[in-house]
Amino acid sequence: MILLTGATGATGIRVLDRLLQRGHKVRCLLRDPARLGARRVDVQLALWTLTDARLPGGALRGVDTVVHLAGPLHDQVSGTLEELNVTASWRLADAAARAGVGHFVFASALGAGQAASCRFLRAKEAAERVVGGAGAVGGMPVSVVAPSLVLARGHRWAWWAQALSLLPLAPVPAGSPGRSCPVAADDVADAIVAVVERGAGPAAGGPTADGRLELAGPDAYRVRELLPALQTVLSRRRPVIPVPGHLLQVAAAALERPGIADRDELAILNCDTTGRRGTADLEALGIRPRGLVDALAG
């Protein structure tokens, strides 16, 4: 049995479909089962939110692998980014280790680090540490998958590119050091399923000895290059205009709404999420990474 969080996200729904197609039994740990649509009759359901102090009874019964994908990029009405990424991940990993789960797969992010300039990447680094700690104490192997910006048509970054294309000029942060290697949600889902099926550790076929996989697409973009590239693929290209970062932050502060979009989300584009191993980890799993055109094809 596989316990899956984040099953309704762009990556999570793809992971769920692949697991079901391959005959796995899946229990989804989630807030709103209705968001699964017709899929909810094919899985077991356990109601849970990232702020719950305890898992529902029986959530880990019979589970041999946990796949933890839930983790918002910004604050929510229910809690801060740190609470929802770090505290929730520790609670789940600790409970899984105590229940004797054999493998914990955690979705982090490329660029995660204590010195990262955005809260999300600092939170993901802290989450990696607490999940790894829970695994070490409980004897539970942990695998970390760390993607760059994840792309799918109609999802987050593609949606913003389309929205900005409605303006005569598309603003981009001036002088931003941000770089990314956008990766297709389909490739990330394929990688996660491969990690689940191969099990934990290099002996099971994992590409790295530390259990951390970098999931990067084949092309690197600076933030000022990424928006035009996305808009070109989406056939909605507009001229870009460099805007000082502090002005974009002021605009984001004025427009932000809890749970929708805010300054923390904008800050991710100003960070380096390229990684160090390029596409090597995806290729080691037998995955040929898609470029922008194919990533946004569906």
Summarize the structure.
The chain has helices at residues 10-21, 81-98, 119-138, 156-164, 185-198, 223-233, 245-255, 263-268, 280-284, 292-295, and strands at 2-5, 26-30, 44-47, 65-68, 103-107, 142-147, 150-151, 170-173, 179-180, 183-184, 212-215, 221-222, 240-243, 272-273. It has 298 residues and is α/β, with parallel strands linked by helices.
Structure description:
The chain is of the alpha/beta class. It has a domain at about 1-150 and about 185-215 and about 275-290: 3-Layer(aba) Sandwich (Rossmann fold). It is about 35% helix and about 15% strand. The chain is built from 10 helices and 14 strands. The chain has helices at about 10-20, 80-100, 120-140, 155-165, 185-200, 225-235, 245-255, 265-270, 280-285, 290-295, and strands at about 1-5, 25-30, 45, 65-70, 105, 140-145, 150, 170-175, 180, 185, 210-215, 220, 240-245, 270-275. The strands form 4 sheets. It has a 7-stranded parallel β-sheet with strand order 3-2-1-4-5-6-11, sandwiched between helices. It has a 3-stranded mixed β-sheet with strand order 12-9-14. Strands 7-10 form a two-stranded parallel ribbon. Helix 2 (about 80-100) runs parallel beside helix 3. It is globular and about 55 Å long. It starts with a strand and ends with a helix. Mean pLDDT is about 85; it is low at about 205.
